[in-house]
Amino acid sequence: MAAGGDGPRGGVNREVQSSSAGGNKGTQGPGGRESKVRLNKYLADHGVCSRREADRLIAQGRVEVNGRTAATGCKVTEQDSIAVNGRQLQGKPKRAVLAFYKPVGVTCTEQDKHAEKIINDYVQYPVRVTYAGRLDKDSEGLLLLTNDGNLIEAVMRGAHKHEKEYTVKVNREIEPPFLEKMAAGVYLPQLKQTTRPCEIRQTGKYTVRIILTQGLNRQIRRMCKACGYEVKQLKRVRIMNIRLEKLTPGKYREVKGQELEQLYREAGLALCSQVTRQF
Question: Is 45 a residue of the active site?
Answer without folding.
Answer: no
